[in-house]
Amino acid sequence: MITPLSIQSPAQADVFERIKAMRLVAEHAEGGWFVGDEELGAVFTGAGTITANGLVTARADVRVDDLKQLRRRLSPDQALQSIQVGTDASAEQTEWAAALGFTRAGGIPTMTMDLREAAEFLEHPFRVRRAERSDSVAMAQCIADGFELDTLAESAPFANAALLARPEVTGIVVESASGEIISAGMSTQTTPDVVGLYTIATRPEHRRQGHGAAVTRALMAAAREQGASVAYLQASPQGAPVYSRIGFTHDSTRTYMF
Length: 258
Hints:
Elements: H1 10-28, E1 33-36, E2 40-44, E3 53-57, H2 64-72, E4 83-85, H3 91-99, E5 105-114, E6 127-130, H4 136-146, H5 161-164, E7 169-175, E8 181-191, E9 194-202, H6 211-225, E10 230-234, H7 240-246, E11 249-257
Parallel strand pairs: 3-4, 9-10
Antiparallel strand pairs: 1-2, 2-3, 4-11, 5-10, 5-11, 6-7, 7-8, 8-9
């Protein structure tokens, strides 16, 4: 068994809360599943990104024997799509991953921010509002377009009606003058003082107009109202400059083997 570990830094908060968030998404996704606990889990959400499917550990020094033990708990139809570890995968972790066919690796930065120092939400020329359950399909389409996913089904796990109804989940959308959802994002607050921001996406034809920043700030404001003091997110190369301007700073990098 893994010795319980207390959360002592934003980077640890990212990993612990991310596992909780992925489990929440999986439990509300069609065909989704989760095996494990808050420190080591295997998850399938059905989303079209490797970051939302795979084996996730809350510490870089987890033993490969623990990873193997968790994998043995999976049924034959519960296949892993990635292995997600800390900043640097150990040689033993890399060797085990390669034996399973995961021979490629990449890193995604985690950025964090102290919400107590965040600026107030700024006015935006388009309507920015909380998402409702009835927005789920339009949100999923916006996320699919923003992340250039092949099908709507690949984004649906992030924006389904059941998930949006959860008290720890907040969805934010930006509407055009015609009422079309052109930017969207979500957050999960599974611990009172920590919030994770996810799937912040803008349709390609509406980018570089501040919509993603508006969604991010609205999610931060909602989390602050609910008592959160730390926000974290995983940044794409396109999104990192936006988040930096808002006040997020690089905290750590997660390694994905796939």
